[in-house]
Amino acid sequence: MSEVALSRPMVGEDPAMRRILRIVGKVAPSESSVLVLGESGTGKELIARAIHEMSPRRGQPMVPINCGAIPANLLESELFGHVKGAFTGATTNRSGRFEMADGGTIFLDEIGELSLPLQVKLLRVLQERSFEPVGGTRTLDVDVRVVAATNKDLEQEVAEGRFREDLYYRLNVVEVHLPALRDRRSDVPRLIDFFNARLADTRGRSVTGFTDDALARLTAYRWPGNVRELENIVERLTVFCDGELVELEDLPRKILDNRGAGDDLPLNLPDEGLDLKQLLSDIEERLIRQALLRTGWNKNQAAALLQMNRTTLVEKLKKRDMLNPP
User: Which end of the chain has fewer CB atoms < 10 Å from its terminal CB, N or C?
Assistant: First the structure.
């Protein structure tokens, strides 16, 4: 890892996260395009910023753009700029994000939302390092490193004709797949401490700590919104918790009612009995998910770790809608 001080540290000691940090440390000094995959809220932009800040381009701009948040008819102008009179409302020349990022890094978030015509133009920029603004005839040369991110399965998008295969391979020189927070639960207490300390520095408010019961329940929660959801919950607790320590009853109802699947597994048969079929299914899903994460979703290697046939694993993944990475 580089000794460059990051604007926002990457918190994680879970083995899956340590592997990600090693990849970031190796790829950052290069000029390779990077594709960051992961569910919403896992920290894809944080990874992109770390790659930029640990690269030789760190003194130049890091320009982000969310391709899914801008209407398709405006996105081309946002990316490549436009000249006066190019369309109704274009009263002046305007620089696009690629021009703004010249010498630095552009972060194309939600790249899977890009239309096919814009994919063609992006491919040209990656191949030729040049483009024309909308309505313009002058070619602009740019020196830009591209980091892209998506929560979609781009291989599936390619197979179904919604994403260009040549663009996919241009973007995916190095792939970084971020695990969901539920798959790196050991990092939950560290992240809680980090967000609590940062709120103390930036907002002047924090809590002293968490009881063991509260921390255990937060760790067991499935975190569908991932790290972003955890950050919001910690901020909420610093606002509404009256005591020094966050107690179990201080937690939001959704967390109290939603334990992680397969967590707190009973070692002894409860007096009231249990649903053995569901319990075994939960255990199986946890172990399958761990094997897939450990192998980068390589089904052959995951099947070998689980000592089962690949076809058997694939059938189990289909049944759970886990065939592709989240």
Answer: N
Of residues 60 and 4, more confidently modeled: 60
Whichever domain contains 146, its CATH number is: 3.40.50.300
31 and 156 part of one domain: yes
The reported pLDDT for the residue numbered 73 is: 79
pLDDT digits (tens, 9 = 90+) for 12-29: 888 888 889 999 999 999
In a domain, 248, yes or no: yes
Host domain of residue 302? 276-319
Bridge pairing between strands 130-131 and 140-141 = antiparallel
* Contact by Cβ (8 Å): 22, 74: no
Does residue 267 belong to any structural domain of this protein?
no
The reported pTM is 0.74
Contacts 24+ apart (CB under 8 A), 40-44: 40/151, 40/225, 40/226, 40/228, 41/181, 41/225, 41/226, 41/227, 41/228, 41/229, 42/178, 42/179, 42/180, 42/181, 42/226, 42/227, 43/10, 43/178, 43/226, 43/227, 43/228, 44/109, 44/149, 44/178
Across the range 127-154, mean pLDDT stands at 90
Please report where in the chains the tokens 């663009």 appear, as a residue. Answer: 167
Distances (CA, A) of 249 to 11, 72, 217, 230: 27, 46, 11, 17
